[in-house]
Amino acid sequence: MNASLTSSLVTTAVGVLLLTAVLQTWRRSAAGSVRLLVIQGLALATLVAALGASRGDVQLLVVAGVVALVKAGLLPWALGRTATGRLVERDSAVRPAIGLLGATVLTMFAYAVSDPLRGGDQSAAARAIPAGMALVLIGFWILLTRHSAVSQLVGFVVLDNGIAMVAFLTSDGLPLTVELGATLDVLLVVVILRTLTTRMRNTHGSTSVDDLTELRD
Amino acid sequence: MTVFLWLPVLVPTVLGAIIAWRHSDAFARFVPLVVALVILACGIALVAKGQVVTSSVLRADATSSYVLLCVGAVAVVALWGGLSAQSLDVRSDALICAFLAAMSLAVLSDNLGVMWVAIEATTIATAFLVGHAGTRGATEAAWKYVVLGSVGVAIAFLGIVLVYASSRASGAPTLSWVALTSGGISLSPHLARAGVALAVLGFATKAGLAPMHSWLPDAHSQAPAPVSGLMSGVLLSVAMYAILRVQAVGAAHIGVGLVHGMLLTFGLLSLAVAALLTLTQRDYKRLLAYSSIEHMGIIALGVGSGTSLGLMAALLHMLGHGVVKAAMFVVAGRVLNVTGSSRIASVTGLLKRRPDLGWPFLVGSAALLGFPPFVTFFTEVAILVALTEAGLWWAAGAAALLLLVTFIGIARQVLSMALGAPDLHPESGDHALVADRPSRFRTAPVAIALLSGAAISFLALVFVPVLGAAAAALGVSR
């Protein structure tokens, strides 16, 4: 694959990843959040595939397939089965505008501090590393500001997508066994949290993390 | 010798799969204990051999052999003591097997990535064990545990990703711990620094160090007793082991100042949190949980001192605290069975009412508080000495003060439970959850644990060579 095509594919995928993450801070409906995750997963898979094709790395293409299957298929599917209907009232601790502003500030911060991580590398992939860090920070932001269990799960997945992005952009991904093990772990964590969400609805009558107040000192 | 590397990983995996598949109760109850005995035996064998054993991705040096021994010893105490009338269901037994397999893999793998995968897998295996009771509290504890645990460990993963990226500078990127510490490769310093710091921060969450400890008291107080014992003695210790491995990578490339500074901060904060919250604690299972935070803080201080004395004492403290705490959770679980309440105020006169539970509870608390002749006394003194020797007298002074406050807090609560008239709350007997009669079979593991907590002090000479080798393997020889 020629260099300019790779470069534009990487840039587009990174743009979509960042955009979907920022939009998550603004979305109100659970189903919408999950749809954004599907798009984000596909963008991540595209990014991996573009990197693999440009380096002629078959293993990376296999990983791209796994990423597409898990991040754009299984994960949103597992989430979507919980995310029926609207999110709980007053899901977010902050107004949507503040949520967006927070995401913007965090993105700028990520670009400001991630420079040393590039190590002087000027390729399209290396220039995108700060976007991965931005995803990690936005994932945290969602975890901090959202109160419904499903939104927290979405935040966790965005955080994880960010880490995966950094892994692929800095070192073409981790060794295959570690990559697969980590993917499986994240999938299982989401499935477990989904089950706990269902249980929470049965025991607490809601899925708002605010209602978890039984245990305190 | 390679068989001792594979048995601790394969036996729990295979037996766990069998009981999950067969679903028969009679056989399943004893499987976790059998698995724990196998792990303990392998740990002892590897420690006794005293050589580095390698087989594909698995590797045991002095540090991993010793920690495997700790894992086995704690698991035997917790699971033997936990064998009771009110047995866990088959699914829980299978999950405990999965947990032990993952812990063994984390300790025995030579690859930081595989170690991470195994530690994350323990969150998965223990999630439903924490939520086992199915009550509001248990569900809440499980949710907080999984969210905080996974996010913390995800940060560690980002750290490991950066360490891997930093090793690209040498041409052949690797996550092998041996390769990363051998000095044969060079890491790009910015990436390595960020990676090591994030990995330590992430694993510190899993080790229950303050200020990332908030999941720990909830999870420990809601889980069934043997699971609390396993989490306190095994899970926290293995997370600490991961920090040790990461700090060795840091020591080989970017110096130790960063990691040791972090550990000293976390350690003192943990002691402070434990001191504040044991004073006002009203739930005895949570009291034990805060005591675990305290002890993890002590271990972090030992490692953070940067001396070989501090590291060796920290490793010995890991074993002493682990077995005693597992026994204490087992006893606390039985007290809960008998009284039906985990409130400190509703338990009095334990010594008169149930001497078979009261005495172990009192003696075990003494061990946790660091009374001689228990090993915790000697290791705590050694860690304070190590801190002073390293010129960190302010940390030693602060730690001593905080330990004193915690001492007062825990001693007051435990004495109010042990002493007093047993008939103050005659109605509490009616709340008994299950019939729990004194039984030698169930007292034995507690007695063995407390005796070994004291015996280790006198067997210290036996442990010194392996502890020294462990410290040397981690690159600390000062």
Quick one: biggest sheet of chain B? 2 strands, antiparallel
Q: Pair with the most extensive interface?
A: A-B, 39 and 52 residues
Shape of chain B: globular
How many strand elements of chain A? 0
**Overall average residue pLDDT of chain A:** 86
Measured by DSSP, the beta-strand proportion of chain A falls in: under 5%
What is the number of helices of chain A? Answer: 9
Structural class of chain B: mainly alpha
Helix content of chain A: over 70%
| Helical run tally of chain B | 20
Head-to-tail CA distance between termini of chain A: 60 Å
The radius of gyration computed from the alpha-carbon positions of chain A, rounded to a whole number of angstroms, is 18 Å
SSE run of chain A:
HHHHHHHHH
Q: Give the end-to-end Cα distance of chain B, rounded to a whole number of Å.
A: 31 Å
Number of domains of chain A: 1
Q: How many domains comprise the coordinates of chain B? A: 1
Biggest sheet of chain A: strands, sense, closure? Answer: none
- Main sheet strand line-up of chain B: 1-2
Radius of gyration of chain B (CA) equals 21 Å
Mean pLDDT of chain B: 91
Structural summary, described in words:
The complex is a heterodimer of chains A (217) and B (478). Chain A is built from 9 helices and no strands. Chain A is an all-alpha fold. Chain A has one domain. In chain A, α2 runs antiparallel to α3, α2 (30-55) runs parallel beside α8 (149-171) and α4 runs antiparallel to α7 (129-145). Chain A is globular, with a radius of gyration of 18 Å. In chain B, a hairpin with a 2-residue loop joins β1 (53-55) and β2 (58-60). Chain B is globular and about 70 Å long. Chain B has 20 helices and 2 strands. Chain B is mainly α and 478 residues long. Chain B has a two-stranded antiparallel sheet. Chain B has helices at residues 2-22, 25-28, 31-49, 62-82, 90-108, 112-130, 136-166, 177-181, 189-206, 215-222, 225-253, 257-279, 284-304, 308-339, 350-353, 355-369, 375-389, 393-418, 440-458, 460-473; strands spanning 53-55, 58-60. Chain B has one domain (2-473). Classes of the chains: A mainly alpha (217), B mainly alpha (478). The interface between A and B is large, with 39 and 52 residues.
